[in-house]
Amino acid sequence: MQRPRDGRPRLLDRIRARPGGRLTLRIATGALGAALVVLGLILVPLPGPGWLIVLSGLAVLAVEYAWARHLLRFTRRQLHRWTRWLVRQGWAVRALVGAAGVALTGAVVWTSVRLSFGVDLAATAWRHLDT
């Protein structure tokens, strides 16, 4: 049992020490983490923090599950590799990656609005530009 500097057991260690506490903690973290991962995956194609919510769900799952800790470490390593690579690139590559991100976000927004509300944003914008 790890203890912080003041010598008291950590909250999670106190929960695990109670009868049924370990099982309760595993069920609660599993349910909350899974809900966050599923919500994040639903939100990934939409503009917003979908991947951040997925990673938050993995962080919650990593409290109790080794596989989630490994997956979270792997994901963080890959993200750091990607950002270090991008920083080393010239302005043209970074601009191309940025433009691709903007185009992908625009396509996701257009598709979401088209499927959700039946409105073609491109055609509507084109009509407004013609007038």
UniProtKB/TrEMBL annotation:
Coiled coil: none annotated. Keywords: Membrane, Transmembrane, Transmembrane helix. The keyword Coiled coil does not apply. Pfam families: PGPGW (PF09656). InterPro entries: CHP02611 (IPR013434), Uncharacterised_PGPGW_TM (IPR019099). The chain crosses the membrane at residues 23-44, 50-72, 93-113. It comes from the Bacteria. This is TIGR02611 family protein. The lineage of its organism: Bacteria, Bacillati, Actinomycetota, Actinomycetes, Micromonosporales.
